[in-house]
Design goal:
The chain is of the alpha/beta class. It has an 8-stranded parallel beta sheet with strand order 12-13-14-15-16-17-18-19, sandwiched between helices. Strands 4-5-6-7-8-9-10 form a 7-stranded parallel beta sheet, with helices on both faces. It has a two-stranded antiparallel ribbon with strand order 1-11. α19 runs parallel beside α20 (532-540). InterPro entries: ACMSD, Amidohydro-rel, Metal_Hydrolase, TAT_signal.
């Protein structure tokens, strides 16, 4: 039952993702922004320096003014019925996450007549002075759109300070000479122009755009964490390039770009209400950089680019819980956090091969970040043994990480039936699990067999006998593997990885959980869809959801903020953060050494 491997292109694309208005809510207050003090913090390999006024966990971050550089409302194709898309969804998310202002784009400005829809967007958001329109623009020569002079007049009349361009989607050639008047107008007036790399072509086309229009401020959204080797050199070389972290969820990315002198080019942009604004603000709230630079990224840089001289009122959710308040203060969460999906590089490495760059991805960096966020423990697996297809080297890498881990961390082993015989596998399984710190099983799709194939039987039988658990990144479009294994091996707790990556995936996870009492869902994935965690809880209950981050492939801060800024009750969040994880590992607690056992003790 060996299956054909995914193509490289299809795998990378898949894994990049696995990369009518209302008023303000009651209890939501506005006040003038207050900022002072400075701090510089570096996690892992970096030192911590604090001034007299503020400590690392102090209140300086609570007054950060967040101005969202890209949100988008409106209908879209292929939308799941539960996906959020309305203006009211955006407003609720902003209120929930204490976002003070936002640039708002409109899907219809791309999907229908541009200027008709641009003006419609202005009518939609007119009642909300903290929302600013983003118009989609294109050249005028086909008679469908105003010429630059007319465009400039309309933008001034409608207080439009930023535009998007969609050359690919709207079928025009940005390199053509007839486009020069449009870009000359935008450049002369330094109008913030927002786009994605694919809209301009290949990465070399993006660089050509930056060279052609050096005075035009360009904001790149939608780049993925596995495109760092393209993005990072461009940001460092071209100061008119600005980036957001919506999909660019790179481990310690804020700290790296701050260190390389790019702070003024970093923009908080959430793509709400498709994505969670809380996920992306947490990345900035926890940024280990001076407070003044966090303020730039949260909103200062954007206001400068938009030429906004008077700051919007600082808006704060007065009904936030203690977890949301802790993140806004940049403090460790005051409840236990157990991460069920953690990878590890060898100490000192920043690269995982393939397309993967993972800044500070060894034990010092990982455990330093974990401490900063308030972790009490979690399950560690190697990167080289899983994704790099070197299972025999991966398990020792995990053991080395456990050797230097704080209290509360255990290991997941991996075994590859495509490289080793059944007899070799049985011996390796016994040898690795002789280390009592290993209680988890982590197969991977690169091994080339579906997980219910007989080549895995020796591993699953051993796990069932010892009451281990398995973390399954499905290798099929459905969850047949998980459902088959859950029935066949009832003493194993089977965890569906990335169950929150989409509403479609959530539907499949809900169905599996309803069928089998030993199936759980772990949420992590790049898209951080707004509302999907609540959707999972509503469909499958609050006792089978687990927090995981997939660090350091992605930075854990977005994944943590996605859950913390959800609308779930505090007690449910606490279950997902740690309490449910304790139920998963409970059958193995007697096996685990004391140092590897996490605690739910109050902090």
């Amino acid at each position: 039952m060996q299956k054909q491997s995914l193509s490289r292109r299809k795998f990378l694309k898949t894994n990049a993702w696995m990369g009518v208005g209302i008023g303000a809510l009651p209890g939501f207050a506005s006040q003038e922004v207050v900022r002072d003090g400075q701090e510089t913090v570096r996690a892992g390999r970096l030192e911590v320096m604090e001034d007299e006024a503020h400590t690392l966990n102090g209140a300086a971050g609570e007054n950060l003014l967040f101005f969202d550089g890209f949100t988008r409302i409106g209908p879209r194709k292929y939308k799941h019925p539960a996906e959020q898309w309305k203006l009211e969804h955006l407003l609720k998310d902003m209120d929930q996450c204490s976002i003070s202002a936002a640039l708002v784009a409109y899907t219809q400005s791309v999907n229908y007549d541009l200027m008709y829809s641009n003006l419609e967007l202005n009518r939609l958001i007119k009642p909300y002075p903290h929302l600013f329109p983003v118009w989609n623009v294109m050249p005028h020569q086909t008679g469908e759109f105003p010429d630059p002079t007319g465009l400039g007049r309309l933008m001034a009349e409608n207080n439009v300070r930023a535009v998007t361009i969609h050359p690919k989607t709207n079928a025009w050639d940005w390199k053509a000479r007839h486009c020069t008047p449009l870009f000359a107008h935008l450049s002369k007036n330094k109008i913030l122009t927002i786009t994605t790399a694919p809209e301009l072509g290949a990465w070399e086309d993006l660089e050509e755009f930056l060279i052609r229009y050096p005075t035009l401020p360009l904001l790149l959204t939608g780049a993925f964490w596995n495109e760092q080797r393209y993005v990072l050199p461009l940001v460092q070389q071209y100061k008119n390039l600005h980036i957001s972290f919506d999909n660019f969820q790179i481990n310690e990315g804020v700290e790296y770009l701050h260190r390389t002198g790019c702070t003024d080019q970093l923009i908080f942009a959430s793509n709400s209400p498709t994505m969670s604004a809380g996920a992306h603000r947490s990345y900035i709230d926890y940024a280990a950089i001076p407070a003044a630079d966090r303020a730039k990224i949260a909103g200062g840089n954007l206001m400068r680019l938009l030429k906004i001289t008077q700051k919007p009122a600082l808006r704060q959710n007065q009904n936030e819980d203690i977890l949301m308040r802790a993140i806004r203060a940049g403090s460790p969460l005051p409840v236990s956090v157990i991460d069920m999906h953690m990878h590890m590089l060898h100490e000192g490495l920043d690269s995982g091969g393939w397309t993967y760059r993972m800044e500070n991805g060894g034990p010092k960096g990982i455990f330093g970040m974990a401490k900063r966020l308030g972790y009490q423990g979690g399950g560690i697996m190697s990167w080289n043994g899983v994704v790099s297809q070197n299972a025999i080297a991966g398990n020792p890498c995990t053991a080395e990480a456990l050797d230097v881990a704080p209290k509360g961390y255990w290991g997941l082993a991996t075994f590859d039936p495509s490289h080793y015989s059944q007899d070799e596998l049985r011996k390796m399984i016994a040898d690795v699990y002789a280390d009592k710190r290993f209680i988890g099983m982590k197969p991977y799709q690169f091994y080339g067999f579906e997980y219910h194939d007989p080549v895995y039987d020796a591993w699953w039988e051993y796990g069932n006998q010892n009451k281990f658990y398995g973390l399954i990144h499905n290798s099929r479009a459905d969850l047949l593997e998980v459902e088959t294994l859950a029935k066949r091996y009832p003493d194993v707790r089977w965890i569906i990885a990335h169950a929150g990556g989409s509403f479609k995936m959530a539907d499949m996870a809900i169905a599996a959980i309803k069928k089998y009492p030993n199936v759980y869902a772990e949420i992590t994935l790049t898209p951080v869809p707004l509302g999907v965690i609540e959707y999972l809880v509503a469909g499958a209950g609050e006792n089978r959801m687990l927090y995981g981050s997939d660090l350091p492939m992605r930075d854990p801060r977005q994944q943590l903020g996605w859950l913390v800024f959800s609308t779930l009750p505090l007690e449910v969040k606490k279950k997902i953060l740690a309490e449910n994880a304790m139920q998963v590992i409970k059958p193995c607690l007697d096996r685990l050494p004391e140092h590897s056992r996490p605690s739910l003790a109050s902090k």
